[in-house]
User: Which sequence fits this backbone?
């Protein structure tokens, strides 16, 4: 199977992993005054901070399964990711997304060494699940890192279409304009192979927003 | 098709998953609260709500005091209530499975859709049976207009029949329209103040639960497509209907 096709499958919003429940913390940002014109800057901020953590984590998960197979110790990586994702609300949301992707992995690709290694981790976040699955599917590290970046940009932009009224062509222009930034981010993490190499680039403002969002009773998106 | 077997004890079937859908304001949450009040003494129940804003229905149910708070879980739908019960049911399935994991003795998990429009119905991969809720205040002609939920949900509830005189609706005619739109499928005209109607509702649920436990309940897709014509939805929606009468 050509890896491009598998990459398209994993990047598709129609993948049944409850992607429609996520806004990439855009909802709390908008609630606290972020305007539509600032969304492109918000995308860049995320790519340089929280998305770098997730992409680095995914790349390392892929490398660990590649080197150690089913015996890959993904628990250490899980802890490294958690230490770099200080908001409990973001961690809960990412572990929820991980469960959703794990459900699909167990249904469609249960045999691979990555799928086996994941069973040893209690509720891994999406980045760890995606990285291990990417190894099983033969996706290269740089492609995986681009996937994490692209998915985040599209998640925020799709939520923007729900939260602030916009011409969808404008929003797709934001995605296009973010593509070089996705590539930069992906290049910065594509060669990582060990848990302690995962960048510690959290964004305190996003984490504060995410934390407040988890305690509001009137939200549209999970996170 | 959902797996009916309990993953821990295959001889025990997992709880019945019952979907409640219908337009905004027709009384889905009140129907669930009513079922909890009527049945909490005899059945172990839990609820998953899907709402516009996170947990308004969940808070309504919690404040009604009909179930312990932790048995009522809210799922965010990202402003896509239709998607969450039909195309990508993942968030709801995870919530149901988490409840079933925490409370392994459950009999019924009720899943309340976010109030959507007349075309929204549950995927049979998410629920074993579904109730579509209308109310008399929505207008006497709604049942006649039809739609997948009105025509082919396992049960149609026409709610708030006690309000009919105040909103100028001929409830007898509305129920007759509903029955003619549904062939032989059941219809309950419901009012909280009408004991007989509540008994009809709980008797229907007891019947469905017995069928589920016997392993003979086949989840039926009401479909988003019209039943008559050459559409691909026709065979599935109609084909199982005969085996699904109670």
Assistant:
């Amino acid at each position: 199977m050509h890896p491009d096709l598998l990459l398209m499958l994993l990047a598709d919003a129609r993948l049944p992993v409850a992607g429609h429940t996520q806004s990439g913390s855009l909802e709390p940002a908008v609630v606290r005054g972020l305007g539509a014109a600032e969304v492109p800057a918000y995308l860049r901020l995320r790519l340089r901070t929280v998305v770098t953590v997730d992409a680095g984590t995914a790349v390392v998960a892929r490398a660990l399964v590649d080197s150690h197979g089913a015996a890959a110790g993904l628990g250490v990586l899980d802890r490294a990711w958690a230490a770099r994702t200080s908001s409990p609300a973001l961690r809960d949301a990412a572990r929820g997304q991980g469960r959703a992707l794990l459900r699909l992995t167990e249904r469609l690709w249960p045999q691979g060494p990555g799928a086996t290694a994941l069973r040893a981790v209690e509720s891994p976040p999406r980045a760890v699940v995606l990285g291990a699955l990417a190894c099983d599917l033969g996706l290269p590290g740089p492609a995986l890192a681009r996937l994490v970046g692209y998915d985040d940009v599209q998640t925020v932009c799709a939520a923007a279409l729900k939260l602030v009224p916009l011409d969808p062509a404008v929003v797709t222009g934001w995605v296009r304009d973010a593509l070089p930034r996705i590539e930069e981010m992906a290049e910065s993490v594509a060669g990582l192979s060990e848990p302690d190499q995962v960048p510690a680039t959290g964004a305190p403002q996003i984490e504060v927003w995410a934390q407040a969002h988890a305690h509001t009773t009137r939200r549209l998106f999970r996170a | 098709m959902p797996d009916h077997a309990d993953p821990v004890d295959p001889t025990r079937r997992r709880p019945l998953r019952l979907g409640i859908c219908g337009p905004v304001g027709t009384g889905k949450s009140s129907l669930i609260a009513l079922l909890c009040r009527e049945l909490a003494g005899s059945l172990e129940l839990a609820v998953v709500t899907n709402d516009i804003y996170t947990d308004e229905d969940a808070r309504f149910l919690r404040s009604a005091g009909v179930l312990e708070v932790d048995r009522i879980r809210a799922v965010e739908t990202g402003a896509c209530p239709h998607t969450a019960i039909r195309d990508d049911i993942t968030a709801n399935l995870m919530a149901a499975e988490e409840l079933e994991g925490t409370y392994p003795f459950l009999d019924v998990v009720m899943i309340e859709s976010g109030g959507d429009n007349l075309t929204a119905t549950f995927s049979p991969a998410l629920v074993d049976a579904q109730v579509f809720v209308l109310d008399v205040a929505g207008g006497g002609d709604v049942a006649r207009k039809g739609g997948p939920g009105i025509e082919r949900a396992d049960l149609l509830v026409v709610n708030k029949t006690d309000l009919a005189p105040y909103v100028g609706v001929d409830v007898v005619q509305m129920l007759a329209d509903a029955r003619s739109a549904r062939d032989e499928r059941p219809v309950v005209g419901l009012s909280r103040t009408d004991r007989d109607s509540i008994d009809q509702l709980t008797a229907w649920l007891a019947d469905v639960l017995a069928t589920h436990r016997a392993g003979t309940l086949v989840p039926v897709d009401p479909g988003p497509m019209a039943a008559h014509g050459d559409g691909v939805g026709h065979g599935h929606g109609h084909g199982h209907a005969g085996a699904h009468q109670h």
Notes: Chain B touches chain A at residues 52-56, 59, 75-80, 83-84, 87-91, 93-94 (CB under 8 Å). Residues 229-246 of chain B have pLDDT under 50 and may be disordered. The beta strands of chain B are 16-21, 45-51, 72-76, 108-112, 129-135, 155-159, 187-189.
